[in-house]
Amino acid sequence: MPYTDTASTESEHEPIHEARLWRDKGWTAKVIKNEDGDGWAVEMIRDGSAEPALVGPWTMGRNKVDPKPLDATAHQTLVKTASEVIRRHEQQLHAQLNKQVSVEVADQVLTVRLTITPDEFEPFGTLTAIGPFGDVLATATVRPDFRLTRDSAARWAAMASAISADAFGSTGRAGISAYA
Description:
By secondary structure, the protein is an alpha+beta fold. The chain has helices at residues 6-12, 72-97, 150-163, and strands at residues 16-17, 21-24, 27-33, 40-46, 54-58, 98-105, 108-117, 124-130, 136-142, 174-175. The strands form two sheets. A five-stranded antiparallel beta sheet has the order 1-2-3-4-5, covered by helices on one side. Strands 6-7-8-9-10 form a five-stranded mixed beta sheet. Strand 8 and strand 9 form a beta hairpin. The N and C termini lie far apart (63 Å).
């Protein structure tokens, strides 16, 4: 029978319920010696991740030397906490990469969005003007460090409007490629 990686992959996802290692429901909890001093810590690693999502202190057992053993309740609590940490991190990253302001241009209230694409080699931003009915009126590529403020959005929207007189009307979309 030829060797395949499926056997190792299947064993990596099988539940393990041991005192210091608990793998279940896509997460692995591992009790480790606390690097900062005495005591124990627990790290939570999501399946497929190289780094732990959460590392925190772990309770000592009754003998005050060994760690308290992991169990299903502790694992479930740790999964919820680690999932919340990941969710907050994703929300923070989304907020850093996506901003929007509302401005008034030519008697219309427009939403100007800045979306940063964090490419390793050539990151960039995209400004998008959105009309009151959700239609895209103009787009522009900007530097990734572009600061979106009401003033910068109003200046860009006015420039886009001047370049294409009907850009903010019902007939068209302006594709402005400028480093605003």
